[in-house]
Structures are given as C-alpha cells and as structure tokens.
Amino acid sequence: xxxxxxxxxxxxxxxxxxxxxxxxxxxxxxxxxxxxxxxxxxxxxxxxxxxxxxxxxxxxxxxxxxxxxxxxxxxxxxxxxxxxxxxxxxxxxxxxxxxxxxxxxxxxxxxxxxxxxxxxxxxxxxxxxxxxxxxxxxxxxxxxxxxxxxxxxxxxxxxxxxxxxxxxxxxxxxxxxxxxxxxxxxxxxxxxxxxxxxxxxxxxxxxxxxxxxxxxxxxxxxxxxxxxxxxxxxxxxxxxxxxxxxxxxxxxxxxxxxxxxxxxxxxxxxxxxxxxxxxxxxxxxxxxxxxxxxxxxxxxxxxxxxxxxxxxxxxxxxxxxxxxxxxxxxxxxxxxxxxxxxxxxxxxxxxxxxxxx
Amino acid sequence: xxxxxxxxxxxxxxxxxxxxxxxxxxxxxxxxxxxxxxxxxxxxxxxxxxxxxxxxxxxxxxxxxxxxxxxxxxxxxxxxxxxxxxxxxxxxxxxxxxxxxxxxxxxxxxxxxxxxxxxxxxxxxxxxxxxxxxxxxxxxxxxxxxxxxxxxxxxxxxxxxxxxxxxxxxxxxxxxxxxxxxxxxxxxxxxxxxxxxxxxxxxxxxxxxxxxxxxxxxxxxxxxxxxxxxxxxxxxxxxxxxxxxxxxxxxxxxxxxxxxxxxxxxxxxxxxxxxxxxxxxxxxxxxxxxxxxxxxxxxxxxxxxxxxxxxxxxxxxxxxxxxxxxxxxxxxxx
Lengths: 357, 334
Known about the structure:
Chain B: InterPro entries: DUF8094. Chain B: Keywords: Signal. The structure holds 2 protein chains of 2 kinds. By secondary structure, chain A is an alpha+beta fold. Among the domains of chain A are: about 60 residues; about 140 residues, Jelly Rolls (Sandwich). In chain A, the strands form 2 sheets. Chain A has a 6-stranded mixed beta sheet. A 4-stranded antiparallel beta sheet of chain A has the order 1-10-3-8, with no helix packed on it. In chain A, about 25% of the residues are buried. Chain B is elongated, with a radius of gyration of 30 Å. The mean pLDDT of chain B is about 90. In chain B, helix 3 packs across helix 6. Classes of the chains: A alpha+beta, B alpha+beta. The interface between A and B is large, with 45 and 35 residues.
C-alpha cells in the first residue's frame, strides 16, 4: 500500500465515535461511576453513622444463686480492659466481685451451685448458664470472709452493687461474684471500651477507588477503537525495541531476541526465512572474536532453528507487548464490532508495516 | 399498576438490603480458650506472697506487742503456733521476746507452688536479721480454699547451709509428697531417720546417711553436759524424738531433690538422783516452768522444726539438715 492509498482511505474512517466507544462511554463508564459513588457513600456511612460502637455494654440477669463465675476468656472478650458491675436485687446485701485464677475460684465455690457467664449471646446480652461446682463444700470453721481471701488478685465489695475494673490479657483470670446470700437475683453488666473497632469503611473506599479507575479506563483507553490503540502501541514498541540493538554486538543475548519478537508479533503468526534473514542483517554485524559469547550464539542458533519457547521463557514481557496482546485479543473476541472499513484499514496497516522494514 | 407495585417492592427490598449493610458491630467474639497450661500457673504472684507475708508478720507483731497469743491462730498454725505461744510466755517472764524469734520482713527468695489442690505450701527465705542472725526459712500453708495462708513453721538456716535451687516464682514449683521416690530416701523416711539420729547421735544406724549439722551437735553436746551433771548424783536423763504425723511440708527443687520441713517433737526427761530436785536446764525452761514445784523428775517437751534437703537418689550426697528451730513448749515436774 502506498502513501497515497492510505491518504485516500483515511476519510473513510467515520468522523464520530464508534459504536464501541459509545457503549463504553455511555453505558459502562456511568455504571462504574455509579458503583464508585455508591461505594464511597456506603464507606462514609460506615465510617460515621453506621460506625461500630466503641463501647460495648452487655448485661445478663441471674437468679437463684449466690455465685456467678465468668468463663476463662470472657473478661477479655471484647477488649483487655473490662469493667464488671453487679447489682443485687437486694439493696442491703453485700456484693463482692473478685478476680482470681480458675483453680482458686473452683476451690472456693467447690460443692456450690453457680451461674456461668459463657460469653456474649448478642452485642448487648451476656449468655449465662447454671452449673454445679464439683467437690464438696469446703467451708468450715476458721474460714475467712470473701473479701479477705489471699487468693484474689483484686477484689471489691460494696452494699447492693459493686464494680470491678480489671485487665485480662491472656484469658488466665476469671471473675467470681459473691452475692452475699443464697438464692438472690442480680444483674451482671460487663462494659468494654474497644481499642480497635472493626473498619467496614475501608473495603468500600477500596472498591470505590477501583471503580473510579475502571470508569476512567472505560472512558479513555477501552473506548478507543482497538486497531488505533494497537497502532500507537506497536509504533512505540518498535522505537523502543530497536534502539538498544544499535550499539550492541552479537554478544547481547537479551535485546536481540526481543527486537525480533516484536517484529514477529506485528506480522502476525508465522515467520518466513526471509524475514529472519532480514532481522539478522538489520543489527550492526560487528565481529569481535574476543567478545564472542558462545552461550548467546547457541541461543541464537536454537532460536533460528525454530525453538521459540526457549527465547520466550527467558525474556521479560514488556508492558507494550502486553497492551498489544490485549488489543489483539479484544479484536479477536469481538469481531462483529469491527466494521468492514476497520478490517480493510487494518490490512493496509499491516502492509505498511511490512513496507517500513 | 402491577409494575408500580413491583417497583415499590424492589425499592423496599433494595433499601432493606442497604440498611442491612449498616449498623453492623462485627462478628460477636467467642471467648478464647484458656491457655493449655492454665493449671500450671503459680498459685500466687510475688505481690500476693508479699501481701500475705506482711499480713502474717503484722499479726505476729501485734501478738508480741500485746504479749498475748490471742488472735495468733488467724495467721499462725501448726508447730509455729506452739513455738510462738511459748515464746510469748517466756518473753513475759524475761521482759521481751528472745532475739531468735525475730523474722526479717524482707525476703531473698520465695518458692510458690503450682498445685491445684489443697493444702498448699509456700516457702519464703528471708534476709538475715538486723543483728546478723542467719536467714529464716518461712513455711506458709493454706489448708483449704476458704482459709488464708498461715505461718506453719520457721526454721533458722544454719550458717553456711546450702539450699537447693528452685524454679523462679513466675514459673512455680511442684509440691512434693511424703512418699516421693527417686530420692536417697522418701521425705517421710528421711524425717523418721533424722529423728533417730537426733535421739541416738552417732550411734544411730542412720547416722552416716546425714551430713553433720549444728542441731545434731548442739543436742548432743547439751545432752552430754546434762548427762555428766546427772551422773554426779546418780540421776538419769533421756530424750526421745517423735515425728509428728502429717506435720511435713515438701517442695521439689529444680535439681530433683526435695526440701522437707517437718515437725519432730522431743521429750526430755531428767530424773535427779539422791533425793534431789530436777530443775529447769535453761532460762526458757525456767520461764515456762514458772513457779511450779520441782520434783525429782522433770519432763520438758520441745518442738523441733527441721528443714532437710533430701537429694536425688543418684546424686551420692547425704541428706542435709539446712535449718532448724528448737523451742521448749512445756515444762512439767512429774
């Protein structure tokens, strides 16, 4: 194809945007844009009014017991620091909460029924269950008052209601409540202030960001007609790929196969012996026996003999090559979108490329 | 019309789904399982031990100030209760507690058990006293979870005594049993044999199983002196040592041996001959005897708290007494 032919052909390309571009810019981009806006809005909502509350307060009502014991790990369930409040129905009763090791507490309540606090049933409710401590009641003469026991690491007692603030880092401590008398009812409240609140906003922001990027791409690169995009890319690739070979001798094993491959791609599948020869003579043929690299020579000869895989594996795929590949893929997968003009202009371009060499 | 209803339903559904996304607190946490070695954590922290010791010493100080043993039982038990009551009685007669009853408030080392059951034993080794008396080995015991730790015994460590090593209090120590094996003798046997050695001295069949110590030497030399005095007027003296059942506390050292603290009671019967009266042999005995009427025979009951290190079987070492306390608690003329 000559320059004149090409000039004649150019006016045949439609002046307005193609159908492909219309769909991309008119449908896909707004869809991505809407999703992006929705994601950002949801993200902002999750970061503000829907933000998980920092303070978790869970309550349970227990009845018909004297002792309440938390399971190991319940004190530090939401956060290491917890404030446990026990309010007896009997405002006159002395209520105590102590923190100690499980084995000490098991010893203290041995043989007595108690209520276990097993965890959270929901964010505002503690789950409780009745239990009976193993062993026999060990209370006897010379016993000390609950508050005076040596075993507790912390203990606090008060009339009617009491609060114990404590820290449980390794689930080794449990809390024991003594309501002061048998068969009473009480409310147990645990209050944690979360140091780390789950961040539900960030995933939305992230998805929103991706949608924005996709929308921009759809409006620009993806809306471009495939052959246009490919031409721009292949020209850039040629300029880039040929440059380094100029100054380098046959000793360079990396640059040469790349430049050959770039050319091969442009010409489509298959390669004639003529083309190979062409590419061979193209690079400056400096014969310097001292700089001769046998390994690269070997590689070259193996490449010539048709072993393309070896060259492919060792080389790096440049972004331009990747873009060109995607462009071809898009074209192949959607042949109906390309008009007959586009087909013919593409053929012309191929011819041009051949001529250029 | 129908499409409007469909639209309305769709809008409601969309709104509901969107709201469902919000107001979410995250997943409800499950309690993390307790660490597998939760039963292996020490029964007390060092701070707790310190608090307990301070409380016990306060009780002792209170009793000393009041010169009365009332209220001691809240924090003192076992042989130590007898020893302290006796010391107060003697102190009342002599105008103050003997210096050997001093217990320093600072500690060098504490040995805390990891055992789950009761009774529990805690050893604490104090510093030397202000007047450079030797360190004290304090033995605390908690008999039941509903009771507090009480001072069960105090042994004054012998000069130069080598105590075995124990694991640090943060890790905790296993309590031993009276029938622990793998040792040169079980702790119970060791105490019984030591009682025999105290009674028979070098003539005991077990004498060579024990390293020499100052308690043995003192008892032997005092007995020798008294024997000589008694022989001059055809009197006799005998001393019998009896292991008190179940009065034994054991902690396993890190080298595989046991540090055993046990109570051995002894009765010293002195019969004066030639129609003479048998009199108290020391100021302490005199104070305890008080204004009692002396007869030809005097029986003095001593409480001996002995600390024995029983080494592992393959160590080839003898059993060593590392500390002891010996106090008369009763003097009677019979």
